[in-house]
Amino acid sequence: MVDEFIYEPRVAYFSMEIALRNEIPTYAGGLGILAGDTMRSAADLGLPLVAVSLVSRSGYFRQQIDAQGRQVDRPDPWEPGNWARALEAKVAVSIEKRLVWVSAWLYVLESKWGAREPVLLLDTDLPENAAEDRQITHYLYGGDESYRLKQEIVLGIGGVRLLHALGFQIRQYHMNEGHSALLGLELLRRHAYPPEDLRAGECRYDIPPVRAQCRFTTHTPVDAGHDRFSYDLVAHMLGAEFVELGTLKRLAGDSDLNMTRLALNLSEYVNGVAERHAEVSRRMFPGYRVHAITNGVHPFTWTSESFRQLYNRYIPSWCHEPELLVRADGAIPDDEVWNAHLQTKQQLLDYIRTNTGKALDPRLPVLGFARRMTAYKRPDLLFNDLQRLKAIARRQPFHIVLAGKAHPRDDGGKRLIETIHRCLQDVADVIQAVYLPNYDFALARLLVAGADVWLNTPLPPFEASGTSGMKAAFNGVPNLSVLDGWWVEGCIEGATGWAVRTSGVADGDAGSLYDKLQSAVLPLYYADDRTGWLRIMKGAISKNASYFNSHRMMRRYATEAYLR
């Protein structure tokens, strides 16, 4: 089944999560969406990659919202056999001195031009394994620290072994975040000197060849967000003899095993996911050279059908060369851009009416906000001053549509969802707004295309990149966002959208958001002549979508990281 993929060397792309399609819940959010877009663009461009992830049979979770606005976490299992094929190859990893067998499901991702890329979804639910080990690959980001380390052993060490067992020729290993950094230890063991060849005090491992094989993309600008495991736990799980402790501490840190530090020390090429994020990462990890390759989104996947047809008509090669969308300003008539947008907006409003019973007025602008619900994203910033928000809406009405999940163990994120629901009730006499539950791949496509304005209000510098606004741009939706992550590069004030100025103080930041909404965004939307609004819509396409796409991103990885 894998024979067609092993005839040429490939880059092995390791990611704890990956978004392949809406029916396969092997992703939790932006990291997984990015991994899926990476593989989709690799297929479109003919870049030989193989993705390695976990099967996550129990999915992430299905979100319900009760009458009080509280998130209820429901199971969201899936059956791999419906979408992928089981491979016969099996490898073993040692965990707690037990052999844990690892196999994989092969999912083949196909581009619209027929190119195919293999995705291996690792699975320990095998009859050879003990009951507790069969569940290692069940729950995405589930369980305690021990469970998480077991998953990362399976992903990094098991993933490398299975690739070799299947006959893949691997030219580089690309770690998408630090979850798979243990693959570097497996490679070290393959580059170990025989003990009799060593002089006293010499390192047992030939590190340069391992570094030459590894690439690392870091996504987390928050020190607490990097995985750490005590060396006692590592020794208990892997065995003290797997890689000697002295070498581990030199590579991963003295106090505990820091997965990011391990990846940094075993990778020849390291990058952040936006220019600003690379700067933050260099300050977090002084002494390391951190490049910047700003994220992008897959053109075909995130462009609505009405805009696909529009681009096909006026910019025929856009899907393979999205940089050609720079011509949108002059090539596409204004009225056709507006009509394409109205179609996508109506699809969103139809979904809302069907699923909530609320009928929103298509003549009013829709402010869209959808992402993981957690404190630094500040989803409640828009509701900081409800009286002012309502005063703005009385003069120039608008709708608000929100969505997003909080991690099951993020109590603060769950409280934010409750707070937002109370705010929506408080403004209901003036502003018709909805919170759509179970934000997923399919709902994201509706929202980024159907909104009129895309909001993003993180607390800088904690937004590494963010990609939802890039998806909106492919559908002519301008951003109203804090200058952080990708928007530092993408914002041309009044041309691609608008910047929310920040001081880090909620009152001041909310005031800037309200000022921009009241003085710039809504007046332009309601202007008698729609020309100004369409100019910004086309600016979002020509200046943002033409650049912030995963084709450009993958061409840069190919030339700057993979071909080095």
What is the topology?
Blueprint: E1 10-14, H1 30-45, E2 49-54, E3 62-65, E4 71-74, E5 85-86, E6 91-95, E7 98-110, E8 116-123, H2 131-134, H3 145-166, E9 170-176, H4 183-190, H5 207-213, E10 214-217, E11 228-229, H6 231-238, H7 245-252, E12 257-258, H8 259-265, E13 269-272, H9 275-284, E14 291-292, H10 299-302, H11 305-314, H12 328-331, H13 334-356, E15 366-370, H14 386-395, E16 399-403, H15 411-426, E17 433-436, H16 441-450, E18 453-456, H17 468-473, E19 479-482, H18 487-490, E20 497-500, H19 506-525, H20 531-545, H21 550-562
Parallel strand pairs: 1-2, 1-9, 2-8, 9-10, 10-13, 13-14, 15-16, 15-18, 16-17, 18-19, 19-20
Antiparallel strand pairs: 3-4, 5-7, 6-7, 7-8, 11-12
Helix pairs in contact: 1-21, 3-4, 3-6, 11-13, 13-16
Folded structure, characterized:
This protein is globular. The strands form four sheets. Strands 1, 2, 5, 6, 7, 8, 9, 10, 13 and 14 form a ten-stranded mixed β-sheet that branches. α1 links the parallel β1 and β2. The chain has two domains: 3-193 and 203-295 and 553-562, 3-Layer(aba) Sandwich (Rossmann fold); 301-548, 3-Layer(aba) Sandwich (Rossmann fold). The chain is of the alpha/beta class and 564 residues long. α13 (334-356) packs across α16. It is built from 21 helices and 20 strands.
Descriptive key words:
40% helix, Rossmann fold, 564 residues, 10-stranded mixed β-sheet, 6-stranded parallel β-sheet, 2 domains, alpha/beta
Mean pLDDT: 95
Q: What is Rg?
A: 24 Å
Going by helix content, strand content and strand pairing, the class is alpha/beta
Straight-line N-to-C gap: 31 Å
Please tell me what the overall shape is.
globular
